[in-house]
Design a protein that fits this description.
The protein has helices spanning about 5-20, 30-45, 115-120, and strands at about 25-30, 45-55, 60-65, 65-70, 70, 75-80, 90, 105-110, 110-115, 125-130. With about 130 residues, the protein is α+β, with helices and mostly antiparallel strands. Strand 8 and strand 9 form a beta hairpin.
Length: about 130
């Protein structure tokens, strides 16, 4: 078993690979942060659903990808802040993805939020990922 230094990047790559290969379901090792990120991705309408399966060390997140015909709801997903290079932004400098059509996931003092929610709450933080 390989040691994963960036579990969030691993999750993003698994999702990206799954939608590019037109898979319906992708399994990801569970963590609370990944769970929260998937809640945001689901709320924003990029995935159909996800659920937690297994217990303890074998706990997994089973993600059901969303398609309209053969086109994935996710066009692209990108990890921004990495363990070796953290990227932070104040509320005034929060980026917009595709002029606001995409979503920025931000880790703030009020938890994981989208860029729109962070602007409303008036908080900045670590930019986790872009999804469009």
């Amino acid at each position: 078993m390989a040691i994963i230094t960036d579990p969030i990047a691993d999750m993003i790559v698994r999702i990206k690979n799954a939608f590019m290969r037109k898979h319906k379901i992708v399994e990801i090792p569970h963590s609370n942060k990944k769970h929260k990120i998937l809640e945001i991705i689901k709320r924003e309408g990029y995935i159909q659903n996800f659920e937690v399966s297994g217990e303890g060390v074998n706990k997994k997140l089973v993600v059901e990808l969303k398609y309209k015909g053969t086109t994935s709801a996710i066009t692209g997903i990108k990890r921004i802040s990495k363990p070796g290079l953290k990227v932070y932004s104040s509320v005034n400098d929060l980026p917009k993805v595709l002029s606001g059509y995409g979503t920025v996931i931000i880790s703030t003092s009020k938890g994981l939020l989208t860029d729109k929610e962070a602007r409303k709450e008036n908080v900045g933080g670590e930019i986790v990922a872009y999804i469009w």
